[in-house]
Design brief:
Length: about 120
């Protein structure tokens, strides 16, 4: 029975480790997306400051271009907020997993220590 308990804890630890890896990769992805969007925003801001109009096509009026720009900004703002909430939730989950791993490894070490003691007692007799 102790072997099954150890095996169960080992599988939970592996599962937690994979969850941590998943969160790390997702965090890197969100960081990359954020950097790409920030770069686009800086380019757009620089173009606006220089008086260039990057969004207007030849057949569009200034009003249509402005509406399109506002739509793009609103969409990017919503995407950013969603990503921010997602990263925040992932960060909290990561903290919880780290705490669970600390508690799990401590209990695993205690179980191993107690099983070692009982094994030593059984071999002495």
């Amino acid at each position: 029975m102790k072997q099954a308990g150890r095996e169960n804890r080992r599988h939970r630890a592996l599962s937690s480790a994979w969850e941590l890896k998943e969160i790390e990769h997702y965090s890197r992805l969100m960081s990359h997306i954020h950097r790409a969007n920030h770069t686009k925003y800086e380019e757009f801001s620089a173009a606006v400051a220089d008086g260039r109009d990057l969004l207007l096509k030849e057949e569009e009026s200034a009003v249509q271009g402005m509406e399109e720009a506002e739509t793009i900004v609103a969409m990017n703002h919503e995407l950013y907020n969603e990503c921010l909430a997602s990263v925040s939730a992932a960060d909290k989950q990561l903290d919880q997993l780290k705490e669970a791993l600390k508690k799990g490894s401590a209990s695993f070490e205690e179980d191993n220590a107690s099983s070692d003691v009982s094994s030593d007692e059984g071999s002495d007799g």
